[in-house]
Write a structure and sequence with these properties.
single chain; alpha/beta; 9-stranded mixed sheet; 13 strands; binds adenosine-5'-diphosphate
Amino acid sequence: MHSRFLTGSTISDQSGRQSGRIISIGECMVELAPRADGTYTMGFAGDTLNTAWYLRRALPAAWSVDYMTCIGTDAVSDRMLAFLGDAGIGTTHIARLPDRTVGLYLIELAHAERSFLYWRGQSAARLLARDPARLAQALTGADVAYLSGITLAILEDDRPTLLTSLTELRARGGMVVFDPNLRSRLWPNATIMCDAIMQAATQADIALPSHEDEAAAFGDASPEATARRYQQAGVPLVVVKNGPGSIITLANGTLAHHDVAPVRTVVDTTAAGDSFNAGFLAAHLTGNPLTQSVAAGAAIAARVISSHGALIAQH
Ligand code: ADP
C-alpha cells in the first residue's frame, strides 16, 4: 500500500505518480439509443463507468483502472463484461449474480429533445456492497476509490457498508474521490439524499460537484457557496463544475476561478461532468498543478459535448 498522496496540505507540493490503481464503484447499464430507421443501437454506459472509461484513456498505462459492480450471469451481462475488458478496464471485482441482471435505459427522442427511460430498480449493481468481505477485497491495494451520488442512491441499505470500507481505505493511506451527481428521482426524498451526500462527503479527499444540481438540492447561492459547503464537511479539495461557467477550485482554503473556453455548438451534454472528472483526475493524480488539471478536464468535456453519446472514442 502506498502512503497517502496528493491530499490534505500536500496537494500542491506533490510530484504525482506515474503508476497506481484506481477503482471506480457503481452501475454500468445497457444503453438503447435510437437510430433514424426506428431501431435501437445497444451500448453500455453509466456515470462511474463513463469516468472509468475516460480515465483509462487519460492515465498512463502503468495506472490500472478497475470497475467494481455486480452484473448477472446472462448473455447481455457477458457482453457488458467483454465491453469493459476490451476498453482496458479491470473486471476482477465485478461479481456475477445468478438471480439478477444489469439495468437498462432507453434514450427517447422527441422533437430533438432527449429524455431517458430507466429499468434499473432491481439491477444486480444494487447489491454491489452487500458483501463486506468482497468490498474489502476489491479496495485492498487500491490507491484511489471513485464513486458518485448515484452509487450511493442505488445501494439503499448498504450505504453504511460502503462508507465503512472507504474509511478503511483512507486509514490505509488511500484516497476517496466523490462526485455527488445528484439525481433526486433515485432517492426516496430530498432530505435523505442531502443527508447521505453530505455524510459521504466526510469521507472524501476530493469532491467534484456540479453547481446547478447542488443549487437545486441545497439552495447554494453561488458556485463558491457549493465549494464552501463541501469544504466545511471536511473535503480538502473541492472542484465545482458549472456548465460553461468558470470552474471553482477550493484547495485547503484557497479559492480559485478557472475560465472555460466556450463550446459553440453543443451537440449532446451527456457525460460532460463524468468526462471532466476523468480528465481532471488523470492530470491531478499524475502531479499536474490545479490549473492544468482543470484545463485537462475541461478539454475532454468540450470534446465530449461536441459529439453524440457518452463515450467518445478519440481519446
Ligand atoms: P454535469 O454534466 O455534471 O451537469 P456540467 O454541466 O457542469 O456538469 O459540465 C461539466 C463540464 O463540462 C464543465 O465544467 C465544462 O468544463 C464542460 N461544459 C459543459 N457545458 C459547456 C459549454 N456549453 N461550453 C464549454 N464547456 C462546457
